Each structure stands twice: as C-alpha cells, then as structure tokens.
Amino acid sequence: MPSANPDKAAKGSSAGHSSVLLNEAVRFLTEGERSGCFLDATFGGGGHCRALLEAHAANRVIAFDCDPEAIERSAALQQAYEGRLTLHHRNFDELAEVETGPLDGALFDLGLSSYHFDTPERGFSFRFAAPLDMRLNTEEGMTAREFLETADHEALVTAIRNYGEETRWRAVVDAIENARGTERLSDTLQFASLIESVVGQRRVQGRAPIHPATRSFQGIRIAVNRELEVIETALPVAFERLKTGARLVVISFHSLEDRIVKRFFRRMAGRPEHGRDNRPQQDRVVRGRELIRKPLRPSESEIAANPRARSACMRVIEKGELS
C-alpha cells in the first residue's frame, strides 16, 4: 500500500483506495459533539483515520495495522496531524497488550484494502501472476502456498468449505492434496486454474459470472490470516475500553464476519444471539444499545463509484451503564 495522497485521503481515498461507508461511520462516532480519543483498528489506506482527525481539532486516533506498508502510508497523516495519530504495527487482536486509556469511540473496517488486491506481488488476486502469498503481515507467518502444501485435511476443509463457503469443497480439497509438490500451488494463476478445472464456471442470477476460484481464495486468505479469530478476540477488548456513551462501529464485508459482529452486539445488548438462544431474559446482561437493528449498507451512488463496496454492511452499538 503506497504512501497516501493527501488530497484523495481527505475524501476517504488514498492512491486508489476508497474508504467504504466513510461519512456514515464518522457520523455515528462523532455526532452530538463527541470528540477525544478514538481507536481505528484497521488503518488501511487511512481514510477513516483522516476523517476522524478532521472531525474535531481535539480528536486523537490510536490506529493498528499489521501490514508493514501501512506504516509507510501513514507518514503523510503523521506529519499533517503531528502528535494526534499513533499507529501500532500490530494486528488488532493484540489490542489488549497496548495501553490506550478510555476510548471515545472505536472503528473496525474489516475489509481488505484495495492495495492488497491491486498489488500483484501480495498474491491476493488471481487477476495477476504472482507468488501465492496472501499474508496481511508479510514479515511473519506462513504464506498461502505453505498453508496449501502443509495443512492437514481438516484444516483444508475448514478453509474451503467453512470460510470460503465453496459448495464443491470436496473436489477442491482433493485437487489441492493431489497437487502438492507440484507448481500448481506456487502462484495465483496456476492455483486459480487448478480450482477452475474442478469447479467450473458459475453464475449468480442478475450478476456477471463469478470466477470459480473466488470462494476458495477467500477461504484460504481467511485461514492464513486467522481473520475470524482476531475479530472474536478484539471486539470484547475494544468494547470494554469504551467510555459510557461511546460507540463501536464495525464494517464487515462477508457473512462470516458479520455473523460474529451481530452475535457480539446482540450479546452486549442483552438480546438473543441467534435463533437457538433460548436463555431467559434474567440471565442476560445489558451492556449497550444497538443503534441500528438492520445493518447499514452503502448507497447506490457509493457502489457505482466503488463496486467493491457492494458487500459492505455496518453495525453500531453504544455502550451503556452495566445493568
């Protein structure tokens, strides 16, 4: 992710990256003259971070990003808002290890940055030939290729069936296991071709065809970066650090993320977490209030300007007194 362009970043964009639901997120976090110290758990291109800093001269932001290139991109904001932005080169599941003090608001934008998909060498996209990497933090952990070569059968099934929601998961897992030790697991195009050979083309009614490798790429990326685990770890920590009346905003981009967020918010609001949650009301603890019952989605105009926003949804909870 290259250095931010200040002019674009001021509008929620930076060198090709557009922050999704930017105005809506900042409005919920700052309305009613809310100001102070905010958490941006996913710095990314810095669009949400910049908007929070611009919302009030007293605002400070503590940001996290495990991508080394995010540190480089933050330089412009660090200079423009000297002393008001602190960026930690950490995954947000390490929030508990960092002293923040009480927070006046917190934001999690769980979507990958456009930089990840548009930078070929990162290995997230099958639009380019590149080593099969997919790591958000390129300085540690195993690459997607190493995962595919070494993961046991159960881990592959979890990645392809559960995380990727691939209906032909058996065929994909078999193909991966049979391709081990060959070059077919070495780069994005060869791996995408392998998946296509066993999945075939698929269409979604009313939309352009979905590439056969889309779901498997998603599942492997989630597995390599432990994307669902880190959400489950970080949300309770962020909520605990909110001041009474402060808000937690989370933007998700697929159903697996949103399910975790929805259940956590419902639990904090003292509501049933899912259809099988039959606990009596006296066994629930109300810690907050959901400000929107149905997730907020991007407008048609935002989707037209940024098609990658199509799957985004936002949830907001306000912390209350313990009851």
Question: How does this model look, in words?
Answer:
The protein has 323 residues and is an alpha/beta fold. The chain is built from 14 helices and 9 strands. It has helices at 6-9, 22-30, 47-55, 68-73, 75-80, 114-118, 144-150, 153-163, 169-179, 188-199, 214-225, 227-241, 255-268, 300-305; strands at residues 13-14, 17-18, 37-40, 60-64, 85-88, 103-109, 242-252, 288-290, 313-319. Helix 3 (47-55) links the parallel strand 3 and strand 4 (60-64). The protein is globular, with a radius of gyration of 20 Å.
What tags apply to this protein structure?
single chain, 323 residues, Rossmann fold, DNA polymerase, domain 1, two-stranded antiparallel sheet, 39% helix
